[in-house]
Amino acid sequence: MAVQVTTKTSYGQRLGSSFKGIGSGFLLLIIGIVLLWWNEGRAVKTAKMLNRAEKVAVEMPDINSVDPQFDGQLVHATGMANTSEVLIDNLFGIQETAIKLNRQVEYYQVQETSTSKTKDKLGGGQETVTTYDYKNGWSSTRINSSEFKDEKYRGANFVLSDVEDQKWQAENVSFGAYRLPSELINSISGEKPVELALSEDVIKSLNKVAATVKKDTAVLLAQAALKDYKYVHVSNNVVYIGENAMNPQVGDVRITFTKVLPGEVSILAKVAGDTFTKHTDKNGKSLETLSMGVKAMDEMFSSERASNNMWKWLLRLLGFFLIMGGLKGIFDILVTVLKVIPFLANIVNLAMNVVIGVVAFAITLIVIALAWLYYRPILGILLLAAAVAALVFFAKKGKEEGPQTPEAPAAPDVPAE
Question: Which residues touch 78 (CB under 8 Å, ≥6 apart)?
Fold first, then answer.
């Protein structure tokens, strides 16, 4: 059953919030401009680094012996990433010879969601009706239900076992005769399920904890004689703690185990003795990357360029929205002042949003253009010209659509004598 909470905000409170929003708006505006400038420099420097790196990179055809001629050089190599290290999860008694071992925990919890509808009132006040809904579902975190709006669900959440997510990673991973550094090991992927075979002691321990939480006296008393455990179920790579995995209840816990096994990888990195490190360009940008499978050198450089381009546009978009949010925060006071007449305020708000969007776009272009004037002068001049043209077009458009001065009536014709 949904619960509704109504809150009212006075005209004075709204004005106060709008005044506070001016400071936040300027802060967002500055952050957006700084982000755009930094992003352009980052993108240009990374692109130049990749171009120079591709010219000096060499193929390492044989990784089965440490070759001093490659020491200090940026190399491309392909081979098996291997390890003999055993990763151990002591809580569950799991031991795997693997590069990575992951324990992912989910909890079946009551989840609170909310939707709000806001209505302006004549005189400048505001009324907000928030509806809180509740449903059961799996969550990657334990949900604190002590502050739920509906008293019926308050304090409803608990867990049958206090287990946390955890990851283990091998420290010694070989690459032929070389050793991979932790930065490259982090990039190795390809999760596979762990075949679980939990010991009787582990199952008894988990079952006892769950029975204690459930206050299941019968299970606790019969613990020593149990063969078919009530609360612990193991299937493939999943440990389920609860009475019935097909009918989950609040408090149930689902634990999934995966591992990353040795596999073939391709790397771009600088050789440092019998291991690898970052190749650092003269502009400070560095390169050290690993891809799964057999990847040619040009393919890996293309992938790095695509990644750089993707981040460039994502951060440009973020910068634009930060600037737009900043301008909105600065000028929102104008709309709030007019909220005494909601209809008029809505019209002004719509027009202001259009103007803010255009101005934010122009500021974004100008900042990018100025950054490119610093990093790439020719392209920067072209982009700056485009930004100025956009502002001029908008200004002329607004002038054309402004109030027109009525023409004076024509004088009547006077017949000639």
Answer: 264, 265, 266, 267, 294, 295
